[in-house]
Amino acid sequence: MTRIGIIGGTGWLGSAIARRGIAEGVIDPARLWLSSRSPTEVPQGAHWTDDNATLIAESDLVVLSVRPAQFRQMQIDLQGRPALSVMAGVSATEIARATVTARIIRALPNAMADSGMSWTPYWATDQAEAPEIALTQSLFTACGTAERVEDEAQIDYAAALTGSGTAFPALFAQAMIDHAIAQGMPEDRAARAVLHLLTAASQQLQQGGESPAQVVKAFTDYAGTTAAGLNAMKAAGFTEAVHAGLSAAAEAAKP
Ligand SMILES: NC(=O)C1=CN([C@@H]2O[C@H](COP(=O)(O)OP(=O)(O)OC[C@H]3O[C@@H](n4cnc5c(N)ncnc54)[C@H](O)[C@@H]3O)[C@@H](O)[C@H]2O)C=CC1
Ligand SMILES: O=C(O)[C@@H]1CCC=N1
Prior knowledge:
By secondary structure, the protein is α/β, with parallel strands linked by helices. It has helices at 12-23, 52-57, 68-71, 92-99, 130-142, 152-163, 167-182, 187-207, 212-222, 225-235, 238-252; strands at 4-7, 32-35, 47-49, 61-64, 83-85, 104-107, 118-124, 144-148. The mean pLDDT is 97.
């Protein structure tokens, strides 16, 4: 198995990738090195260091999983080894300059990697080679579903749409819960009701064969209570609010 090093490997995302990779048999813990500021969350059998040069020497593929501002303060030389970046808003050009490699893959998972449910797009430079591309596909299949995309701009946009996206349904859920509480429903029941609803509705959208647009149209045409709610939400600027949020996230994710 390929020797893998994860810089930032005990952080939120880095540790999720390590755990899922080991659990799904893509990573051999004996061939895994993690670096970070402190040795928490090190899987059994894996190696930890606070020295990135040691990690690089022990790795055939180096995953970059530090925050963008932390990356901009790092001095590393991959000496031509492939880099797999999960950083939002750090371009391949910037990575190449800072790490001395042209073999770069950029992937954009989300916080659901930990539970094996991330949709992860990835993009590779022309210099990236088949083994690291295949390993990227396997690593992010271990974290959910992986999909190669044709151009780097799609990775930057994915940081907003799906990379940040796990918190957007949470915002919608909280808005519904707050409304139910204001109508007198006990908080725990409101949370149960709304989370059950959103889980069931998501599963239905995945498996039911109807697109989101078809579901909205069917209920609008029915002209009952749901239509009253949908029409009022749209009139109050629901779509515009969602688009403004995605645009702001996309702007923040621009290299
Ligand atoms: N958390 C998420 O849901 C997602 C995160 N990302 C990207 O993943 C990257 C990592 O994010 P998180 O895991 O959330 O951050 P985090 O703050 O949880 O983890 C960062 C890790 O890097 C370590 N670190 C900092 N400076 C270092 C250095 N010089 N050398 C070695 N290790 C160092 C820290 O000790 C920490 O363990 C970010 O660039 C972010 O944009 C992308 C998609 C989703
Ligand atoms: O919120 C963030 O900055 C990170 C990167 C993309 C998703 N989460």
